[in-house]
Amino acid sequence: MRSDGLEIERKYLLERVPSPDVLRTLEAVPTRIEQVYLARTADSPVGGRRIRRLDGPDGTRYSYTEKRHLHGIVREEREHEIDEAAFERLLVEADPMRKHIHKTRYVFDHAGSRLELDVFEGRLAGLAILEVELDHEEDRPSIPDELGPYRDVSEDPAYLNWNLARR
After folding, report:
1. How far apart are CA 161 and CA 158, in angstroms?
2. Phi-psi category of 62—alpha, beta or left, where left has phi over 0 and alpha has psi -120 to 50?
3. Rounded to an integer, what distance in angstroms lies between the CA atom of residue 83 and that of residue 73?
4. Which domains does the chain have, with CATH numbers?
5. Which residue in 8, 10, 100, 138 is a FRET match for 153, CA 20 to 30 A apart?
């Protein structure tokens, strides 16, 4: 996320989940994520609210995020760390229309960009979405050939995690 609170992000749907060998070649660092969308309330932000449990190389962390779509691939994002107790308290506000998302995020650098590959688990198993945060909407990042065929789904609402949680 940029320092101005804006997130400009392109998303690419991979044709298949990369093999462990490919992920090693890319020096991708994994973090397991449990993502929970919270129900709307009278004082909720216009966009979605979510909490995350992140289990990675630095141990377990928790975060709270509010997002609001502005236009195209631009969103306003406010995110901060919370503790485990706050995460557990907020779980009671989980949106009953959305299921928890479980995924492993692989982070790696390529051609001057930080790439985040989400490999989904459970009911979304087999789904792999590459995300790249950009400085400008018109930017087109370089995607490693090793990831195989892909298509840009940046503006397809079906691939927003908010909507994937409804599947």
Report:
1. 8
2. beta
3. 30
4. 6-164 (2.40.320.10)
5. 100
Phi, psi of 140 (to 5 degrees): -125, 110
The rounded distance, in Å, linking the Cα atoms of 13 and 160 is 11
Helix, strand, coil percent values for the chain (each to nearest 5): 15, 45, 35
In whole angstroms, give the CA distance from residue 158 to residue 31: 24
* HSE, side-chain direction, 13 A CA sphere, residue 5: 11
**Would you say 102 and 93 are in contact if contact means Cβ atoms under 8 Å apart?**
no
Please list the pLDDT of the chain residue by residue as tens digits (167 residues): 556 789 999 999 999 999 999 999 999 999 999 999 999 876 665 568 999 999 999 999 999 999 988 999 999 999 999 999 999 999 999 999 999 999 999 999 999 999 999 999 999 999 999 999 999 999 999 999 999 999 999 999 999 998 999 97
Quote the CA–CA distance of 120 and 123 in Å, as a whole number: 8
CB 9 within 8 A of CB 75: yes
Residue found by looking up tokens 């995924």 in the block: 103
Token pair 């930080």 is found at 114
